Amino acid sequence: MTSEDRPSDSRRPANDDGLAGTGENRHSVYDSDEYYADSARGARLTPVLEWMLRVLDGRRARDVLAKTGIRTGRVLDVGAGDGKFLFFMRHLGFDVSGTTASRRSASAAQAQYGLSLDVTEGLEREVARGPFDLVTYWHVFEHLEDPSRHTRLWPALVRPGGFIAIEVPNVRSVGARICRRSWLGSDEKHHVNPQTRASILETLRGVGFDPVRTEQFSGKYSHAYLWSALLGRLFGREYEFNGVLGILKAPIAAVRGRPLWTLNALAAVVYLAPLVLALMLYGTMTNQGEVLRIYARRRSA
Questions:
Q1: pLDDT of 31-78, one tens digit each?
Q2: What are phi and psi of 13, to 5 degrees?
């Protein structure tokens, strides 16, 4: 194993290379409500984008079933947000459970989908309710300040033959290499546990899981990650991470505050599309896609 692929020390924040480094005043989003809007929807992004996320979460639910072969059973979504994924899994006939560390997102899940999420940072109560046929971490694992608090419980959480699905930003992606400063996967304030593919696979194998499939494309994130990185590369510091995320959260406010800057970014969604698509294809073919999605099956006892 090369130094590039060694597991990161999750207690240290990420540096510009996407691995652990020194830094101050960073904390995991997993311990606060700041990731979610203080509203009944609890959404992070503008309502214009929320309907797209709903469509993509529905596709994700069907995709998980196709990739794992699971047809019925119990599902746990760790860090379930407002519950979109669980809503679709329940619609597909599964018994669903979820956790969140945010009371805002728990309220949104209840209001929108009638889901009762467990407000907790750990999994101890979930172990008592298990085992589950499928446990998912959709862009949650990178937020865990102490991932071992979760990973040591995975064998008890998942039934023999059951699955874990993990998706995280790929710190070795094309977008991260182009311009990490504006790449949307580089939220170093909150992404305190950056992991390479090799380190995640090593963790899974060490607790009794066999990786069965790895993917590097996400309909939800790949385009946005590359778009943000290209803005940073082409236009420099003007398109830092917070500015790009601000457009996704409140585009009208961004236009009012910085009209030319914001309008250029929005237009870039279209005029950079050919380059984004080319880089997306290249990244997927060369194992440098914008996300890492790993499916692993628990070994039989």
A1: 344 444 444 444 566 666 777 778 888 899 999 999 999 999 999 999
A2: -70, 165
For 112, other C-beta atoms within 10 Å of its C-beta total 17
DSSP state of 300: P
Task: Compute the distance between CA of residue 134 and CA of residue 96 in angstroms, rounded to an integer.
Answer: 10
Residue 236: partners with Cβ closer than 8 Å, 6 or more residues away: none
What pLDDT is recorded for position 46? 67
List the single range of 54-58, 131-135, 148-152, 209-213 with lowest mean pLDDT. Answer: 54-58
Where in the chain are the domains? 3-172+187-218+287-298
Q: Look at 240 and 150; give whichever has higher pLDDT.
A: 150
Sheet of 118-119, strand order: 118-119, 95-100, 74-77, 132-138, 158-169, 291-298, 209-215
**pLDDT, position 250:** 83
What's the maximum distance between 2 C-alpha atoms anywhere in the chain?
60
The Cα 17–Cα 20 span in angstroms is 8
Question: What pTM did the predictor assign?
Answer: 0.83
Tell the residue number behind the tokens 């240290």, with chain if given.
12
Q: b/e per residue, 226-265, with b = 16+ CB within 10 A?
A: bbbbbbbbbeeeebbbebbbbbbeebeebbeebeebbebb
Fold classification of 3-172+187-218+287-298 is Rossmann fold (3.40.50)
